[in-house]
Specification:
By secondary structure, the chain is mostly helical. It has 14 helices and six strands. α1 runs antiparallel to α2 and α6 (121-145) packs across α9 (202-251).
Length: 375
């Protein structure tokens, strides 16, 4: 128990320092990431020697290598920056298996929050980090929204409509649920009921929702109010989360003069060469992509995903601009083939999300794998 507790505290300390440096300088030091790899492998080597069980070291080494290969693949695909690769590799060396410290210390005793012996912790950490980025990115976008008068005005109008719609849907669900319970039929009937309701005129939907909610209150006002508050809060929260995360694509971008570009800045535009011409490719639109696939225009869809021509810079590269790419952009701007400014992303630091995910996994254990086993 003691060695894994030590690995846990080393990981927390490293992620805390990495969070600080990522927020302040958008940089995670090599000494920190390489240090995690060295400490993890040596630590598990010593533990394997003391326990006389070489599998302990072999597991740590295998998971470290596998995590590096996966992370490096994401880096080459432009999804991750180099620092993310090294950080995850270091954490894998220290934590091939979920430490699940709270359960180990007896602070939690929930079966589904237990850990398993399979070395899948880095995969769980990756999934949880992505989920952690969603609210984190939404918070950053919310801060930007408060300073943007144009987008704030649009958001207020849309938010008011969404609040009213959430109240209407919540009332309908609570009312339909009360009705099916009274009739003693399956609660799955609520779903087709909502489906039918969705096709009715606006005024009819609002009136029926009010009547259903009134019926639920008559059947049991306390339970109805609790259900309504829970559903309404959930719908509004999900809308805020997804809307702000979507707005981050607009709010967290700014034009930078090409002459002032710096290495590591992340382009929000994709530029390709097609023969002697240079073109700024329109951003991938999910709606248009679905439309092309639905109409069997696969060629057009693939062109959206992978534009034709030689890619000068890509908006999908999380690693940021290189010196070579900046030099080429300056040359193209000098020849008037592209504008003299480039839209760049103010991306959210990733290490804080990893820290949140690491702490969460030490609370809930390998719950994601227990879900799979139940399914």
């Amino acid at each position: 128990m003691a060695p894994y507790l030590l690995f846990f505290f080393i990981s927390i300390a490293a992620l805390s320092w990495g969070t600080y440096s990522d927020l302040k300088e958008r940089l995670v030091s090599n000494w920190l990431t390489y240090g995690l790899v060295v400490i993890g492998l040596i630590g598990h080597g010593i533990l394997a020697f003391l326990e006389k069980d070489p599998i302990i070291f072999v597991t740590s080494l295998a998971v470290t290598v596998a995590t590096f290969v996966m992370a490096y693949g994401l880096y080459k695909a432009g999804v991750w920056a180099g620092g993310d690769v090294k950080l995850f590799t270091g954490l894998a060396a220290l934590n091939p298996v979920n430490p699940n410290i709270l359960t180990s210390l007896g602070l939690l005793n929930i079966p589904i929050f237990a850990s398993i012996t399979l070395p899948v912790f880095p995969a769980s950490l990756f999934v949880f980090s992505l989920f952690a980025m969603l609210p984190y990115g939404a918070i950053l976008a919310g801060a930007r929204l408060l300073k943007n008068k144009v987008e704030k005005k649009k958001f207020k109008k849309q938010f008011t409509k969404r609040v009213l719609h959430s109240a209407e849907v919540s009332a309908a669900i609570v009312g339909l649920n009360a009705a099916v319970l009274m009739m003693g039929v399956s609660q799955w009937i609520v779903l087709p009921g909502l489906f039918i309701l969705a096709f009715l005129p606006k005024k009819a939907k609002a009136l029926i929702s009010i009547m259903l909610m009134a019926f639920a209150l008559w059947r049991g006002w306390e339970a109805a109010l609790i259900q309504f508050a829970g559903l309404f809060g959930l719908f509004v929260w999900l809308y805020l989360l997804l809307k702000l995360y979507t707005l981050s694509k607009i709010l967290m971008r700014k034009p930078i003069k090409i002459s002032k570009l710096e290495e590591g800045m992340i382009s929000a535009q994709t530029i390709v060469k097609r023969g002697k011409t240079v073109k700024i490719v329109k951003e991938l639109a999910i709606k248009k992509l679905i439309k092309y696939f639905a109409s069997n225009r696969v060629g057009k869809a693939m062109e959206l995903i992978q534009p034709k021509g030689e890619v000068v810079i890509s908006s999908h590269s999380a690693g940021g601009l290189t010196k070579k790419e900046i030099k080429e952009l300056k040359a193209l701007a000098a020849k008037k083939k592209i504008p003299d400014s480039l839209m760049v992303k103010e991306s959210a630091p990733f290490v804080p999300a990893v820290l949140i995910a690491y702490i969460a996994l030490n609370i809930v254990g390998d719950v994601i794998w227990f879900w799979f086993s139940i399914i």
